[in-house]
Predict the 3D structure of the following.
Amino acid sequence: MSDVTAATGRERRALVAPALVAAVAAISFAAIFLKLAEPTHALARSGLRLLMAAALLAPAVARGWLRGRLQPVWRWAVAAGLLYALHFSAWIGSLDLTSVAASVTLVTATPLLLAVVGVITGKDRPESRLWVSLALGAVGVAVVGGADLSFSGRALAGDGLALVGTAAMAGYLLVARRMGPGLDVWAFMGVACAVGGTVVMGVAAAAGVSLRPADGTAAFYIFLSALIPQLVGHGLMTWSLRHTTPTVVGLATLGEPVGSTLLAWVWLGEAAPPVVLVGCGVVLAALVLALAGRRGAAPVEVVAT
């Protein structure tokens, strides 16, 4: 590897921490925008978000295909789209059954699953500091979500859907990581969003669900969820996977319940008790520990297709 290439790699890895901070800020708005898009059905909200994002990314997909960057990974992009469909359908459905705090807290259990996968497979195995961050973050999100815990049948169903969304997002991050540092992020995401949105809308149509937003305001907030949490948030997360491990990216998502809970408090009037603020502080400490001084991960071999 030349000195110039090595320097470029170090510079990009140095951008991982600020990129993940920006990603967390962006995805924190997702639950708020999608709550404000009610009473549009959860499947319609999920499918429209993905299709709107796909439309915005269409030029990147066309450019990636013409430059030959998309052909080697398109099958994996389709797989990522199917995982997107499952993740967003389950998670957005959970928002209709439980609170923002509980839903977002459970859906961010992703890094715990990724850490287990890393141990089992031996790939991207978490280092000692990340295990400490995972433990600290788990305590924090438990405090944030536990303050709002409900054992009603409706809330438990919402919690179950959130956990399904967790597993699907872990799968998406693992697929994107396998593509390696040469991944065309925007083209890959464009295909994934198009596939995921088409699948979700197909399921909604088969179930007799209206595919249209409830009104213009709902359409506006769904568009914002496509623009900010999807393109900015998920785009930066996917880019970061080129230079660090899925566990680190998953750990960053622990900041989402902090941002979403505080936004829900201010914007939706879902008051956050003092104990939740303590939990937020614990989560932020875990994120600082995980992201401070990151050197990035070892290069990843691109999967042949």
